[in-house]
Design goal:
The chain is mainly β. It has a domain at 19-155: Immunoglobulins (Immunoglobulin-like, Sandwich), CATH 2.60.40.10. 5% of the residues lie in helices and 36% in strands. The chain is built from three helices and 49 strands. The strands form eight sheets. The protein has a 20-stranded mixed β-sheet that branches. It has a nine-stranded parallel β-sheet with strand order 19-21-23-25-27-30-33-36-39, with no helix packed on it. Strand 8 (103-105) and strand 9 (111-113) form a beta hairpin. The radius of gyration is 34 Å and the shape is elongated. The protein starts with a helix and ends with a strand.
Length: 663
Amino acid sequence: MVRSISASLLLLLLCSPLAAESISGTIYLDPPALAVRVDFLPAAATVKLYRDGGTSPVATTETAVGRYQFASLEPGTYWVVVDSKSINAHAWAEQTFGPAGAVCAQTNGTTRTNSFEGACAGGRSAASDDASSLTTAEHVARVQSGATGVDFAFSFNIVTSLADSGQGSLRQFVENANAIAGPNVMRFVPLTRPVAPTDNPALGLPPRWWTITLSAPLPPLRDAGTTIDGEAHNVLSTASVVDANPGRIDEEPYLRKGERQDLPREEKPELELITSGDEGITCEAACTVRSLAMHGSPNAIVTRADATLEQIVIGTHANIEDAPKHGSVGLQVERGQATLRFVYVTLQDTAGIAVAASGARVDGDYVQVMRCGTPTSGAGIALLSDGSRFRHSHLSANDGAGIVIGSPDGKQPANVTVIEDSVISNNLAGIVLGPGSSRNTIARNQITWNRVGGVVASPYGANPPQENRISANVFDENGGRPIALNAEEKHDMLAQANGTCERVDTVANHGIGAPVITSVQRSDKMVTISGRACASQMVELYRSFVTSEIRNAKENSRLIRRTQKGETITIEQEQLDAYPSIGEFNFVTSTIAGPDGAFEVTVPIELTERSERAAVSNDVLITNENALRGSESDRAYSAIAIDPQGNTSEMSQRTRVKIAEKR
């Protein structure tokens, strides 16, 4: 019996296919490029097999529902090669995942061989795949005969290369997105280490980032749902973010007493894109662009459909240092709504942001625009269409106006714009209302140090702006009036009551008159302000520090503003002569005038002792510093009127606080 079993076993072994082994696996698409099997979809591809040491393939096969198999193989070591160009005739995928034995690139220029399946971004180098030979093929795995589960995954959305073109490049991603219907979201997984700038002072750890330099324009984004995203991810785990360029824009290296570190600020990007052509990134269909520093083209981003822009820096390197040349327009919105979150634009000669055509609009939050426009044209933000909105934004140091609402010639008025909770500072003018631009709201902003004035209506002829609400703002040291509804009038005159409540349709904001403050009385720690306006108008009260008269420009020749970025801006003497500062106007509260127009309101007053100290670099230097401190008698109150339609008056003449005598 034993001898019979042994003979049967020998016969079974002799009949076993020891010389007919197989290698099998599956080729997948990995749309999110996360190298996680739950996202995989079977893909068609050409797969080749080489003997180890061989130069010609021993077999070639096509996948069936992603599956492939090489059968009847002699025992030994083999190389499995996937032809990435065979996956789609109109697009070029890049590898994200490989089996045990896959050869994968490292960021230091070497390779590793996977001991087990997992991420394998880009294949074995940052070069483009040439599957015509084993030596030039990128997507390879060294396996033993009999191996199963030799699986590869590819994505049309992963960017691994800094090259201008080719497999894994940004340009190839755009071409892929245009060729493949449906959303395509870029995942940036660089196969090289970030580079520090050569001129970095090396104080502590130098900032580092990746740079893609384009020698030709990118194709426009033509398929809806495309996202260009420069957030960097780790080559070993494409879901993990690499913060190679740490820090946030305008974040101090250390905190001073009382400062908060949780204020929302824009992150510094890891990817810098130097574009070519007239337009850097053009969205012909709905798109998203995020986490980039951009410069090089006259128009950095142009949108002709709904677009979302987040964590974008235009006009600088990734460390927020100035780019070598100016642009013309940072963001040009021509159609649809552009939704902006944490967008920083600088060094644009025409406008940082331009909403350039009817029907286009912007919804902006935490937008910063600096040093854009010229003294004779342009602006930080130019709005030539209805319905835009900016919140928590910062428009400063622009050679043109901070914001222009409507074109100066009146051909493109802008209506129903909202500017709120923002800082508009150090511009030629703060906010300019163009002819016919109506029903706009400017509320709760800090409008300071603008050389011509705070909110100014440009000359409008027979087409005045109407029903513009200007409410609860802070006006501080603007060169002209805080609110100037007729820019052709004197710059240094606060409004006198016109004695009428009638509306004049040929005048800005229907000629609404300023209120009159008749009495300001302080008793103990309260101040009571009385006056008259028109019946049922809202009256807003503003507190001001005053000197004996409007400040004399010639006494303020040392007037200097130093911004947080370390930039010094000196107001030229001739500008000071033309536009002397009237002072500051801080919103306090509002009330409603009675049926007879009378109003009275009582508010608490804060008495703050201000100690003498030396000026430091972030101070505003003023010859007569008594304007910034003093007793309650150095304070005065002004007012503006707002009617139910939103028409807002200019700032009224000030009335000094009178301290009641103690009995």
